[in-house]
Amino acid sequence: MCFSMLCIIHNLFPPPPLQGCDPCSQTQRSKLQHRRARINQQINKEMRMRAGAENLFRATTNTKVKETVALELSFVNSNLQLLKEELEELNSNMEAMRTPSRNEAGLELLMEYYNQLYYLDQRFFPPHRTLGVHFHWYDSLTGVPSCQRALAFEKGSVLFNVGALYTQIGARQDRSATAGIDRAIDAFQRAAGAFNYLKENFSNAPSLDMSGPSLCMLVRLMIAQVQECVFERVTLTTQDTHFITQLQVAKEAARVSDVYSLVLQTMSQTLVKDYVPFSWASMVQVKAEHFRALSHYNAAVALCDHTPKALFQFHVSTPAGPPLSQVLRDPEDRRKLGKAHLRCAVIRHEEAMRVHGLCKILRKMDILQEVLSFVYKRSLDKYSEMDREDDFEETAEAPEIHSQTQHKPDITAPNFSTVPVTDIFQRLGPLSVFCARARWGPVRVVSLQRGDGGLGLTLRGDSPVLVAGVVPGGCAQEAGLREGDYIVAVDGEDFKWAKHGEVVHILKSCSDRGVQLSIITLHTHDTQVGVVVSLCLDACVCVLHLICVCVTSH
Ligand SMILES: *[C@@H]1O[C@H](CO)[C@@H](O)[C@H](O)[C@H]1NC(C)=O
Ligand SMILES: *[C@@H]1O[C@H](CO)[C@@H](O)[C@H](O)[C@H]1NC(C)=O
After folding, report:
1. Where is this region: Disordered (predicted)?
2. Is residue 345 pLDDT above 90, yes or no?
């Protein structure tokens, strides 16, 4: 019996070319995106109207006005509900159009692109200056477009997709066997890790889904799903029916309920509250109630069907009536306490079904409906089994079950080195030198002819080799070489990656007609170099664009 929610993905969109036009303006995807954004605008308008009406409602003392405003408020609220449902339905249509394949291969593709972005960032994006490159993305839940000039936004969005893809992989595992459950746990932990990494390291994203509170909510949601899988694992592997193992199941269920309650709390915070889809909040609430009910049910089964061999405290507070040590020894007392737990279970099941019934989208999930009805009926049956005709006193209120888990979820941080990539701009030379921090003069070509005193220069270092000094009046100086020049090519052949020894060797063996050296000089403040950088940048944007097209056409 598994039901797991959450299939979110930040939509992958290729960044438009520099002119700022949307290359996908004619596609089905972008039409959907625009509809999503439009509905979201309407939602915002309704919310402003609601805020105004609420203020008026509070401020006025006139009963007639109050009534009119109340009516208006109910209209606005039902409009809001409808708009949000429409948005969610559109979101589920987007689902079918998602791009990278939703499996390990899709993940690898995203990671590869992320790693490639690292190189692009180092090579072309100077630390203290923004370039005219815009990165366009759409919010995963509202479809609101956002745009930022920082490459970090692109990286963050890709990482968001990595997290979202992990949630999908997690949700798709077959959890009827432990192997599948373990894979799901692993995927949800990695999703939590990706969102957590975003929360800590990309805090300035312009879209709501990557705001701190949203990410915090997502991390907790992932943890809750891990905890739910752990519960499933425990129920699957504890076949022996002892009092203590049955209680462990009850404690695990209480734990799952606790973490879902925490998610619900996070979802009700400002900024997140009006943003999270109604069905998500409903689902989380259903789960909190459902697992609370299961904890009571399992405690009841432990008390009624098994004989404890020792005293166990498993409540958060002491139950009313005789001391627990006595209850556990006496079958009739145990039956009564068990019945009290079943009563709590039934109440919680009913609450879960009530919340479920309020949400149109959840009502469409047949499996969820089945699970809720099944466990409800099971608790009712057990209750009637425990009920005696001579039970005259009112069934007491049972305390909550102490929450405890055998597996504390981990937040698995993304490991970027699992997908090695080759820098696509490798031919520009080593990254440590040919990067955006360094400003280079244009390439100069000098002809060097060996004189009586040799070449008249000393070399140092590798990749690229540095001219460490020139002999005054020597050949090198005559030819125009200066201390601090870097040798990037010899006789037209690329030498940017060359080792010291290779350059020395080729210079020693050069024939009488001499060699041609291509050299560059490092200028930290040379404005002319800007041209070189922006020329490279054009290429970079094209490649960026190409990568994205690859990603989206997969
Ligand atoms: C944030 O980034 C740093 C290094 O870039 C990393 O060590 C750290 O683990 C990241 N934070 C999280 C929560 O993953
Ligand atoms: C990350 O992945 C690399 C390559 O698979 C591996 O060698 C390394 O141990 C991993 N690091 C962590 C922290 O798991």
Report:
1. 387-413
2. yes
Residue 288 to residue 271: CA distance in whole angstroms: 22
Q: What is the pLDDT of residues 420-479, one digit of tens each?
A: 888 888 888 888 778 877 777 888 998 888 777 778 888 988 888 989 888 898 888 888
Say yes or no: CB of residue 413 within 6 Å of ligand 1: yes
Domain holding 483, by residue range, is 442-521
Contact between 296 and 344 under an 8 Å Cβ cutoff? The reply is yes
Q: Could you give the CA distance from residue 21 to residue 41 in angstroms, rounded to a whole number?
A: 22
Instruction: Please tell me the distance between residue 418's alpha carbon and the centre of ligand 2 in angstroms.
Output: 6
Q: Which residue lies with its CA nearest to atom 4 of ligand 1?
A: 201
In a domain, 217, yes or no: no
Minimum-distance ligand 2 atom for the alpha carbon of 413: 13
- Same domain for 401 and 498? no
Say if residue 417 is in the same domain as residue 297.
yes
User: Could you say which ligand is closest to the alpha carbon of residue 111?
Assistant: 2
pTM: 0.74
Give the pLDDT score at 538: 35
Going by pLDDT thresholds of 50, 70 and 90, the confidence category of residue 95 is low
**Residue 462: predicted pLDDT:** 86
Is the residue at 455 inside a domain? yes
Strand partners, 469: 458
Q: How confident is residue 300, by pLDDT bands cut at 50, 70 and 90?
A: very high
Residues in the chain: 554
| Any domain includes 62 | no
Q: How far is the CA of 157 from the centre of ligand 2 (A)?
A: 23
18's tokens: 């520099």
Q: What is the CATH number of the domain that holds 448?
A: 2.30.42.10
Counting ligands in written order, the one closest to the CA of 215 is 1
Tokens of 260: 């879902």
The mean pLDDT value of the chain amounts to 80
Domains contained in the chain, number: 2
- Which ranges of 238-323 does DSSP label H, i.e. alpha helix? 243-267, 278-305
Ligand 2 centroid from CA 195, angstroms: 19
